[in-house]
Structures are given as structure tokens and as C-alpha cells.
Amino acid sequence: MNYRFLLFGVAFFSLILFQACENQSSKKENTFDEKAMLEKGKQVAAKTFATLSGALQKAIKEGGIPNAIQYCKLNALSIKDSLSKAENATIRRTSLKIRNPEDTPTKSELKILNQYQQLEKEGKDIKPIVRQLESGNIIFYAPIRVNEFCLQCHGKIGETLTEENHQIIQNKYPTDQAIGYNMSDLRGIWSIEFQ
Q1: Average pLDDT over every residue of 144-167
Q2: Of 28, 133, 168, 170, which residue is 20 to 30 A from 100 by alpha carbon distance?
């Protein structure tokens, strides 16, 4: 009888040891190359920015800022969605001052936005971040800065954003908050989750 108890104990201990080794193995598999993922995130963000800004510049040439506002309203999300599919990722842009309600920050994005905002107030450098989620996916965050092109739709009314264009923006986005920026201001973040 003691022999059976001993065999059961050895088997039970072996099972626990096996599961512990499996957990350690899966933790090792979930490690990621931070430098490589930072670089990949930067590349995807740059590609997305170039695609969106290129499309908007074309819309401006064809019909001015009003045409670009209309184009953005109808196409910006679908462009991001198609790039997300091509990159096997979920590409988002968000901000503390959103224009499109679909870009409302998640809790984790809000935390990063506030962290970046604080660094900005302190005059510190803001750098991209990568983290591994519990799911094993990798999330990349990076600041979005206002450039001269952005000011035409996100600048200060009566300065870089005309009253007429501001009215068009308000008609398309009644809850818009995304104005009043100056050159190089922190506009928001890229939030890119890689599967």
C-alpha cells in the first residue's frame, strides 16, 4: 500500500515538474526582440503616415482643404484598415484631443498619452515604446508631432486654420477637439499592435 502511495506521489510530482517546465518554455517563446520590433513599428508608422499624407496632399491639389477634409472623413479609416491587414497589425492614431470619435483612446493608450504629455511638459525627449501584451502580441507606441502640413486642419483658427475650413471640419466632425496646435506640438500617438 505504501508502494502505491509512493508511486502516486512520484507521478504527481513529475506532472507538476513537467507543467513548470512547459510554463518556462512558453515564457521563453513569448520573449521578443525589442530593437527589431521598435524598428518595425517605426517603419509601419512611417509607411502609414506617408500613405495618408500623400492621399491628403493629392486631395488638396484636386480641390483644396475642403476636398481633403471630405477625403479624410470618407477614407482615412479604410486606408489604415487596409495597411493594418497588409502588416498583420492593428494600426491606430489617437490623441487627447480627438477629431473622429472612432479614434477615442483605449485605457492603455490614454495612459501612454498622459505619460507622453507629462514628458512634454517637463521638456524631456519622447521616444517610441514597445511592450509585449499578455496575449503575446506586441504593441508599439510612438509620438505624432504636428508639422506644417497638419496645421492647415489642426492649427489655430484665423492663423493656420481658416474660419471657413474650421466650419467645414465642424460640419463633418461636430465633436472635434483637434485644433489649436502649433508646429512640433505633440498631436497624439501611433498605437500599432502586431499579431
Answers
A1: 96
A2: 133
